[in-house]
Amino acid sequence: MSSGGRGGKRRGAPPPGPSGAAAKRAHPGGTPQPPPPAATAAAPVAEEEDMMDEDVFLDETILAEDEEALLLLDRDEALASRLSRWRRPALPADLASGCSRNVAFQQLEIDYVIGESHKVLLPNSSGPAAILRIFGVTREGHSVCCQVHGFEPYFYISCPMGMGPDDISRFHQTLEGRMKDSNRNSNVPRFVKRIELVQKQTIMHYQPQQSQPFLKIVVALPTMVASCRGILERGITIEGLGSKSFLTYESNILFALRFMIDCNIVGGNWIEVPAGKYMKAARIMSYCQLELDCLYSDLVSHAAEGEHSKMAPFRILSFDIECAGRKGHFPEPTHDPVIQIANLVTLQGEGQPFVRNVMTLKSCSPIVGVDVMSFDTERDVLLAWRDFIREVDPDIIIGYNICKFDLPYLIERAEVLKIVEFPILGRIRNSRVRVRDTTFSSRQYGMRESKDVAVEGRVQFDLLQAMQRDYKLSSYSLNSVSAHFLGEQKEDVHHSIISDLQNGNSETRRRLAVYCLKDAYLPQRLLDKLMYIYNYVEMARVTGVPISFLLSRGQSIKVLSQLLRKAKQKNLVIPNIKGQASGQDTFEGATVLEARAGFYEKPIATLDFASLYPSIMMAYNLCYCTLVPPEDARKLNLPPESVNKTPSGETFVKPDVQKGILPEILEELLAARKRAKADLKEAKDPFERAVLDGRQLALKISANSVYGFTGATVGQLPCLEISSSVTSYGRQMIEHTKKLVEDKFTTLGGYEHNAEVIYGDTDSVMVQFGVSTVEDAMKLGREAADYISGTFIKPIKLEFEKIYFPYLLISKKRYAGLYWTNPEKFDKMDTKGIETVRRDNCLLVKNLVTECLHKILVDRDVPGAVQYVKNTISDLLMNRVDLSLLVITKGLTKTGEDYAVKAAHVELAERMRKRDAATAPTVGDRVPYVIIKAAKGAKAYERSEDPIYVLDNNIPIDPQYYLENQISKPLLRIFEPILKNASRELLHGSHTRAVSISTPSNSGIMKFAKKQLTCLGCKAVISGSNQTLCFHCKGREAELYCKTVGNVSELEMLFGRLWTQCQECQGSLHQDVLCTSRDCPIFYRRRKAQKDMAEARVQLQRWDF
Amino acid sequence: MERKQAEYSNLDERYAIQGEKYQGQQYSHIYFTRLHHMRNLLHALVPSWKPHLPVTTVLGLEEGKDCIIVGTLYKHMKLKPSILDEYSKERSAIPLVKPHNFMHPDDHLILEDESGRVTLAGAIPPAAYVTGVVIALHGKETSAGNFLVEDILEAGIPPQITLPSINEDKYVVFVSGLSIGSEKFNPLQFQLLIDHITGHLGDENEQSIASNIVRVVVAGNSVHISPRFFNGQAVASKDQSRIAEPIKELDIMLTQLVASLPVDMMPGSNDPANFSLPQQPLHRCLFAGAATYNTFSSCSNPHQFELDSVRFIGTSGQNIDDLYKYSDAKDKLEFVERTLRWRHLAPTAPNSLGCYPYTDKDPFLVESCPHVYFVGNQDKYETQLLQGLEKQKVRLICIPRFCDSGVAVMLNLRNLECSTLSFSTSFDA
């Protein structure tokens, strides 16, 4: 994210939209800003998180009140009363009128605006000031907007030696002058409000003295932190001290986060404003039911415990839109109308949505249990949706791909239609929502382009983004995601059909509406199923960042937030060190012991280090503030007994000298996790359990991400001394464990066998003790874990967790085995690194690998597995494999010209467009293809073909391609440790000699061929049109008929099962199945069954003479 | 002695799919036709059932208002096997369900018409109904959007042509589940049956009874062909001829029968016929010997015919077996009775029972009540004379599998009374 570069660009451009007052989200006062600090402008994407303040909303974007009144004129009365049914419960009388009771609410969003400072609450200030806004919901379900006054932006610099109070005021004046120069057009009376001398200590490196003087610089507006920092970093001349450039501290923290840290507020916690400490807003700015003004010092922030760990009844809106695209194009807002919007609103904690409605363009037949609202113009549809949002007032907006598609589409469409009053979707009156392009880049999640639609006061939660973050799946289509998590196939209507349905009658539009509703419901169900609300709120509470950060930002902000909180307690300040993006400072990673590949038929015990990296950091007190750099080591002359030298050569002081902050954070996280897990065992209430489980998960993830934070070279506070020490300790421990195990568990030591370490990964070691029962191996495993743990510094602990038996070790990071935690029965089959779910594999590979592993590990039947492979290969060569198993799918992300290398799916899309532009895949679609037989020497990308086309025209597939490029590698990987000559045995045996290739029905040569009937028994050509068998086969008539009819019978069974399944997914018996979901495993089978059926019946009819 | 004759007319025409083709049609049409036909019937019955209530569609429901809706039932079943299970991620070692019944306490019914669906609650037991039945319901919509059922109207037993009066004993013999080619088949047992029917066995009295047998109906599963011949793998040439062995054996035995009296041959689920209902007649080329007699007739399943104006209808059992998988009743006869009351031989087709995708008709609708309704391949012999509200009388028969029980069923056309012919080849029985 880089707002610096972006902000600069936008400022010059006229605001889009017809009205000059279109929402413009920029810097305060709309004044031209100085160029953003060089650091951010020069490297727009390099930083994972740019700490520039962005959550600023302008007064200017707010429309004049008379304008507002105009907008609300001539709204449909009937619609208004329809929508008003879904309003929030009315405020109780005392809250509605007075200020006589405490207001407690769970906050979800915190941002700020620049406004005049509050005259009553802050009688001594004037001019523009930052006003924080906290949006939340009370226990009774009332929405609250709390405006917090008096919190000022600040940062630190270290005080130059010998600076006295007079020097400070001179320094103040100089700085003020420089600020004025670079912010000429600003109407702020004073830029630097004050400079205070404080006693603090830097977090960087061990410092023997407790504190030293720092200057706390308080500025007028949050954005001035950056410009002031720029001035100080570049250097400033101070009278008497000369020119000096400063290192700034805590100068890159988002203002809202700064506020949360200072007020002890964590994401998603409960906040209480005591009676008498707040006042009702004089001028209502938001659509919230309750709008308060108060001072930041009067807020009471509750820790998430007991009553305050519960969730408020948030309103969650799940929605989906349908657009009528033109044939052959993906819908574009400039051309294609929005025709339907389906909405479901659910109260947090309830199983069923309480609002179900769909807004349609043109009439639509009613749907049971759904409010259908039809409109004649698109304008009315869009405005009705806006009104709906305003009435229902959702706290959280969810959907599938809403951030990149639905929301931007609606807004851009409204712009095209010149509906200026549409995008008022946030909670602030008359503040328009605008679309911006953003890129998000992070080491963990990769670079991602996205659109950012800020809806003030409402949290957006795009399930697609969440899925992409949290799960590795082969496909992220809503269909395959719901198949994966909900076990359901989703009906998929191709976008070329959508327009036809829309242009039909009210019945066909109803059909579309039902589909649209289903798409709106699935995200809600995913949200429930995966406990996303609980997990994300808990993550926000544990790490202390707002919920919206969790989806839009990377890992490091979470660690930074914890670090800042802890540092504040310890009176430490964090320097603003920009990471060097250079990759020179790499360090040696984790160790992996040599894997002794093989198939182990004796139990393998696995010894795991529990939370290895966090434990190392705790055990050896590794932290920023305990690190002693080599130059200091000489100076300080620390006695050797009070420091640890790490294997990578760094020096850290021991905890009795100075306790590290990171170890302390980790201790707290792990202790909290232990507590959460214990509470989880006790808890009965399912909601409470959900919260606790979410919490323990969040704690675990947070603990593990601390190490990564120190190693992120482009992060906020990289410290490679720490991360390389951690990994070096890790390596040492793995080696140490191996040595101890192999020394102790020997026949000489009185054990039955010599133990052997066959493999070791980052934090685990696999040992073969040589015993043959799971029970014995468990006993020895436990003994070894206890013995070795005793040799480590606490809290590093080696645990015995599981046995693999049998165990197939292929190479490092690739293995499979049966997983045992009790001696009676294995728990599951565990595999790692064996591609069963890779995207560019066809289903055949997945099935084959899974089945083989099952046969080898569970059935212990290696010959059976070999036979299975042979049969499958033979089926493949004999053209007996179901085509859907051979389909390979790839996403088309850009058009053909943009791809540097020719790719199979791109070429195919191009060819399909020439055949029929209407149904050809467009950018954004997934392209399924199979590899067909073609002329010798044809490139693989030329041999891709549409599976449907292949089915319809009997085109032969290329079994050799599948054999060599798809199945051989994964198979050999599995079988090589087991079989000698695996390749010869499996891939070149006698079973590969019989080959059958179908004859294409559309190839050139067939045009010259004459069709003749052949005997069904022996394929001899027979003369006479009404015969089935040749003379010789006549005697086998009964037998051959049985085979023909048996074939028909099988196909009929398949046909029935496939088509009734589709009816079931579709949820209707009386309507034709429309679904064309190519992600569905039975789509091609269904099509093939239909075709085969027709052919088989023709064959059968030949007997009827 | 001379064998008695009865006038026979075959009514299987409606089950023929000779001219039909698979042209991409789907199953929605058959439901549509069924609903259309049954709704007309039910609407006609409503005035005499609850004349004061309005009849509406699922869409027209208003919360809290009493009304009648007519539609097709859909039963949502948790345990219903799905073809998608083949693709599920985890394979479980033990099958979770007993294979014979997919019922679960969470099952619920949904009523569907062209306008929409509504979930049913109240006085309608999910266990007694299956997907595909068309009924009328009295009830009202609840605030949760469900339909609270108060009363159910089924179409009931259809009208019947009057039973002709026949003054003499004439018997029809039903046999099913011979399973020639399976281990259970006992050739001697079947030979005894043949000899008994053809009059080669027993004393004069028995022979005179045998001479009153006017027809034999073989209700499915006459042969058993090992499934390994059809799993797509190549069959060794020496095995190829073995496929047809059971059929040849059947042909030889059938030939003895057809030489002395007419035989109706119905296909069943294990026979070399198509899978979907209606199953088409077994091909004559399978019966090189028997087919040369004009007394041999190969029929469809379901099979419908008249003997001396007594109306018969019957199946080889798939329709009832499927009801048994997806619903619950005290005995098999109750399932049989239900199909009559629902006026549909196979309501679960096409949902869980294979069926041809008709576009313009639903051949399984029962428009006129038969006098005899038989179902082949059941576990045990059961029978009942069902009386309808309009004095309809139907003889319901469950024919046991002959290979298990050695029992054939004999029906007297004169009084629709039923008895069994039991054959055993062991002495202690």
Secondary-structure topology with pairs:
The complex is a heterodimer of chains A (1105) and B (429).
Chain A (H helix, E strand, L loop, with lengths): L2 H10 L25 H5 L13 E2 L7 H8 L4 H8 L8 H5 L5 E14 L11 E10 L5 E7 L4 E5 L6 H18 L9 E11 L9 E8 L3 H12 L1 E3 L3 E3 L3 E2 L5 H8 L7 E4 L4 E3 L9 E6 L4 E3 L12 E9 L14 E10 L7 E7 L9 E5 L2 H15 L3 E4 L2 H15 L18 E8 L3 E8 L5 E4 H8 L7 H8 L9 H9 L2 H24 L2 H12 L3 H6 L3 H14 L2 E2 L24 E3 L3 E6 L2 H8 L7 E2 L1 H7 L6 E3 L5 E3 L7 H22 L3 H26 L8 H25 L11 E6 L2 E5 L5 H16 L8 E14 L2 E7 L7 E5 L10 H16 L3 H16 L10 E4 L12 H12 L10 E6 L12 E2 L1 H7 L5 H17 L6 H6 L49 H30 L16 H19 L4
Parallel strand pairs in A: 1-2, 4-13, 6-23, 15-19, 17-18, 19-22
Antiparallel strand pairs in A: 2-3, 2-11, 3-4, 5-7, 5-10, 6-7, 8-9, 11-14, 12-13, 15-16, 16-17, 20-21, 24-31, 25-30, 25-31, 26-28, 27-28, 29-30, 31-32, 32-33, 34-35, 35-36
Helix pairs in contact in A: 4-9, 6-7, 13-14, 15-21, 17-21, 18-20, 18-22, 20-21, 21-22, 24-25, 24-28, 27-31, 30-31
Chain B lengths: L7 E3 L17 H22 L5 E2 L10 E10 L31 E6 L2 E7 L11 E8 L5 E7 L17 E5 L11 H12 L5 H7 L2 E7 L17 H7 L1 H14 L4 E4 L29 E3 L4 E5 L2 E6 L2 H9 L5 H10 L30 E7 L3 E6 L5 E8 L1 H4 L1 E6 L4 E6 L7
Parallel strand pairs in B: 2-3, 5-7, 8-9, 9-10, 10-11, 13-14, 14-16
Antiparallel strand pairs in B: 1-12, 3-4, 3-6, 4-5, 6-7, 8-17, 12-13, 15-16, 17-18
Description:
The complex is a heterodimer of chains A (1105) and B (429). With 1105 residues, chain A is of the alpha+beta class. Chain A has 31 helices and 36 strands. In chain A, the strands form 8 sheets. In chain A, strands 1, 2, 3, 4, 11, 12, 13 and 14 form an 8-stranded mixed sheet that branches. In chain A, strands 24, 25, 29, 30, 31, 32 and 33 form a 7-stranded antiparallel sheet that branches. Chain A has a 6-stranded mixed sheet with strand order 18-17-16-15-19-22, sandwiched between helices. In chain A, a hairpin with a 2-residue loop joins strand 29 and strand 30. Chain A starts with a helix and ends with a helix. Chain B has 2 domains: 268 residues, Purple Acid Phosphatase, chain A, domain 2 (4-Layer Sandwich); 83 residues, OB fold (Dihydrolipoamide Acetyltransferase, E2P) (Beta Barrel), CATH 2.40.50.430. In chain B, the strands form 3 sheets. A 6-stranded mixed sheet of chain B has the order 1-12-13-14-16-15. Chain B has a 6-stranded mixed sheet with strand order 11-10-9-8-17-18. The chains are: A alpha+beta (1105), B alpha/beta (429). Chains A and B meet through helix 24, helix 30 and helix 31 of A and helix 1, strand 5 and helix 4 of B.
